[in-house]
Amino acid sequence: MEPDKVDLHLLDPARDELLWRRKIATLAARAWLHRQEHLSVTLQLLRWTRPALAMAVAAALVAMVGASWVEPRAATTIATEPVYQFAAWATTDQIPSTVTILETFGGHHVAE
Amino acid sequence: MSRLSVPETVALIAQVRAGNEAAFGALVAAHLRPAYLAALAIVCRPSDADDVAQDAFLIAFERLDSCREPARFSGWLLRIVRNHALNWVARRRLHDVLPEPPEQITNASAPTEPSEPVVRAALLVALSTLTPPQREVVLLHEIEEWSHAEIAAALEISEVMSRQHLLVARRRLRENLTPVLPQEVNHGT
Fold it and tell me: Does residue A83 sit at the B interface (CB-CB below 8 Å)?
């Protein structure tokens, strides 16, 4: 017993015991469901993390191998382009034969 | 209300983590009122305190696995409640809005005894004149009947500070309540 105590019982949320018990039961059910949902989401994420990482690594490897294979081919393609050939002749002072010129531009040499 | 000792709380938390729903109910039953009172100390409105306490409970139980020290569950929970209540106040811009006293309670010479809603409103107005830590201490001590050691542990303050807050809170409550509710103030249990 404390003589100085201020009576605050009217602010007690549990004054109506029945109502309070109902509130606890409702909240407990809600919070439990919420927790289970959260746990299942976390579990799903954890479950999918490893396969997802493995797939990402595999995709990265495929992309790297693909890139290293495509690059030299692209260089070859560029080297056979008419413009490239033309530039090569110009810079090396080459005088190509008629046959070479026709072949470079996709024509055919027909013997007379 | 069911009070739990620290070992009981620790055991319940372990059971909840293991998936025991009944243990979960017991934990809610033991900690909802302190959570409500901590929320009321900040938001100053019973209906808001109710919502804040319930929301904070959902957050707390979602993160229960991150509670590293189950022995300090009360303090951990009340910290979540306090943070949530402060966010609530910031969102609703309640800083400058205090509960208005009903007209009846300003009439100190009223011959009839004030009704419960009037007394309740007067108590809320008187509480709003305190600082949040004073409100928290006085509510947890007078309603939840926590000792100063329990309050100090939960609010992360010293026991001396807890006693100081209670002393000041009681004095201010008396000063504010005596003119409007003389009998109520004198009837402290």
Answer: no
